[in-house]
């Protein structure tokens, strides 16, 4: 989850998010270079007297056509690479269905057992000490770590969006449509997210919590859940 | 989890308000080398030609190109390093998993040597 008043990305917990953070750093470095140049040119212009002596400027026109084209290529190539990487879904180990409702999520594990449960936010009045306000839920989504997981997302009433920033996942939940996304968690842990599409009065109060555990723990959890 | 008994998160220093040079790998070195390149080129040009305006242009150009040049070089090495780390981690995990079993490649090699002799 985010630290208080955090402005940047959370630490990445999936390979795709690591790539996204690296691309973001790359884009910011290019932006820094461009900003430095623009600031310098602005300073020069402010110190110059106004004149209308320029007739044509073939050389500078060539430079400010080719240089931006190069910059765009430098940004576009890694961007497209990551875009296509995000669309690869290569034999997932588990398929999870997430259905958005007003104002909770329903999760279904129907690969091997018919598991289904609702996930409601824990109200602040019932929150145990040390837990996170507006982020904790009564039933977390448990997934095995280091395994490709496919998530199929839809909604039962209005638009929602299933988002977990640290995994680099944000997919709209649209009624009557199935959207697919996938992720791999690189480490065990608890990852928080929130609904990211305005869906009514309690839009801010339907968080998502993904718990990544080793496979044996996941098997134990699914056995306990199906028994209950 | 952040904030649970850990020391305070390291404060960031954002250049021009957006580039966190402390926490982004290679950023600090890029900016420092860029500054050095800017100083060398600008000062060198001024000492050679005594033209202030053109030397400033060279200084800014030197800053941008040195910074970006080192950035690409450093990020490329960083990416290679990370790939090697991943391969090593995977290799160590597989070695522990398969050691002594029929899938152990070292055991297969030893078996082949014995059959060849």
UniProtKB/TrEMBL annotation, chain A:
Recorded GO molecular functions are:
copper ion binding; cytochrome-c oxidase activity; oxidoreductase activity
Q: Which InterPro entries match?
A: CcO_II (IPR045187), CcO_II-like_C (IPR002429), CcO_II_C (IPR034210), Copper_CuA (IPR001505), Cupredoxin (IPR008972), Cyt_c_oxidase_su2 (IPR014222), Cyt_c_oxidase_su2_TM_dom (IPR011759), Cyt_c_oxidase_su2_TM_sf (IPR036257)
**Transmembrane regions listed in the UniProt entry:** 27-47, 62-84
Needed cofactors, names only, are:
Cu cation
Give the membrane topology: Multi-pass membrane protein
Q: Which keywords, in A-to-Z order, does the entry hold? A: Copper, Electron transport, Magnesium, Membrane, Metal-binding, Mitochondrion, Mitochondrion inner membrane, Respiratory chain, Translocase, Transmembrane, Transmembrane helix, Transport
Q: How is the cofactor bound?
A: Binds a copper A center.
Where does the Cytochrome oxidase subunit II copper A binding domain start and stop, copy by copy?
91-224
**Reactions performed catalytically:** 4 Fe(II)-[cytochrome c] + O2 + 8 H(+)(in) = 4 Fe(III)-[cytochrome c] + 2 H2O + 4 H(+)(out)
GO BP annotation list: ATP synthesis coupled electron transport
Name where it mostly resides.
Answer: mitochondrion
Pfam families per the UniProt record, alphabetical: COX2, COX2_TM
Cytochrome oxidase subunit II transmembrane region profile domain mapped to chain residues: 1-90
Subcellular compartments: Mitochondrion inner membrane
Give the UniProt family note. Answer: Belongs to the cytochrome c oxidase subunit 2 family.
> Its function?
Component of the cytochrome c oxidase, the last enzyme in the mitochondrial electron transport chain which drives oxidative phosphorylation. The respiratory chain contains 3 multisubunit complexes succinate dehydrogenase (complex II, CII), ubiquinol-cytochrome c oxidoreductase (cytochrome b-c1 complex, complex III, CIII) and cytochrome c oxidase (complex IV, CIV), that cooperate to transfer electrons derived from NADH and succinate to molecular oxygen, creating an electrochemical gradient over the inner membrane that drives transmembrane transport and the ATP synthase.
NCBIfam families tied to this protein: CoxB
Name under which the protein is recorded = Cytochrome c oxidase subunit 2
Q: Which organism is it from?
A: Dromaius novaehollandiae
From TrEMBL, chain B:
Q: An example Gene Ontology cellular component term from the record?
A: mitochondrial inner membrane
Keywords recorded for this protein, A-Z:
Membrane, Mitochondrion, Mitochondrion inner membrane, Transmembrane, Transmembrane helix
TM stretches of this protein: 30-48, 55-73
Quick check: keyword Amino-acid biosynthesis in the entry? no
GO terms classed as biological process: mitochondrial respiratory chain complex IV assembly
Q: Name one Pfam family in it.
A: Cox20
Q: Where in the cell is it found?
A: Mitochondrion inner membrane
| Alphabetical list of PANTHER family matching this protein | CYTOCHROME C OXIDASE ASSEMBLY PROTEIN COX20, MITOCHONDRIAL, CYTOCHROME C OXIDASE PROTEIN 20
What's the family? Belongs to the COX20 family.
Name listed for the protein in its UniProt record: Cytochrome c oxidase assembly protein COX20, mitochondrial
Q: From which source organism is this entry?
A: Dromaius novaehollandiae (Emu)
């Amino acid at each position: 989850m985010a630290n208080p008043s955090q402005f940047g990305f959370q630490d990445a917990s999936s390979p795709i998010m690591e790539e996204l953070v690296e691309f973001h750093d790359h884009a910011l470095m290019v932006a820094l270079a461009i900003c430095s140049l623009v600031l310098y040119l602005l300073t020069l212009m402010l110190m110059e007297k106004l004149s209308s002596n320029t007739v044509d400027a073939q050389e500078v026109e060539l430079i400010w056509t080719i240089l931006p084209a190069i910059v765009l290529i430098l940004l576009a190539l890694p961007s497209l690479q990551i875009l296509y990487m995000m669309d690869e879904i290569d034999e997932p180990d588990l398929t999870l269905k997430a259905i958005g409702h007003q104002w909770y999520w329903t999760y279904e594990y129907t690969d091997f057992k018919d598991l289904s449960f609702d996930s409601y936010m824990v109200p602040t009045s019932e929150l145990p000490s040390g837990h996170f306000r507006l982020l904790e839920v009564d039933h977390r989504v448990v997934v095995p770590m280091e395994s490709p997981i496919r998530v199929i997302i839809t909604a039962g009433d209005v638009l929602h969006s299933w988002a977990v920033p640290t995994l680099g996942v944000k997919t709209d939940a649209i009624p009557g449509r199935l959207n697919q996304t996938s992720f791999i968690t690189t480490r065990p842990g608890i990852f928080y997210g929130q609904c990211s599409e305005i869906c009514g009065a309690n839009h801010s109060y339907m968080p998502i919590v993904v718990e990544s555990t080793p496979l044996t723990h996941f098997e134990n959890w699914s056995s306990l859940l199906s028994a209950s | 989890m952040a904030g649970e008994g850990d020391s305070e998160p390291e404060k960031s220093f954002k250049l021009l308000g957006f580039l966190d040079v402390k926490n982004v790998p290679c950023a600090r070195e890029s900016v420092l080398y860029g500054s050095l390149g800017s100083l060398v080129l600008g000062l060198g040009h001024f000492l050679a030609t005594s033209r202030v305006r053109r030397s400033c242009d060279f200084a800014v150009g030197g800053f941008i190109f040195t910074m970006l040049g080192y950035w690409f070089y450093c990020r490329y090495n960083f990416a290679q390093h990370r790939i090697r780390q991943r391969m090593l981690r995977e290799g160590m995990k597989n070695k522990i998993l398969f050691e002594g079993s029929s899938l152990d490649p070292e055991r297969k090699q030893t078996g082949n040597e014995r059959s060849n002799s």
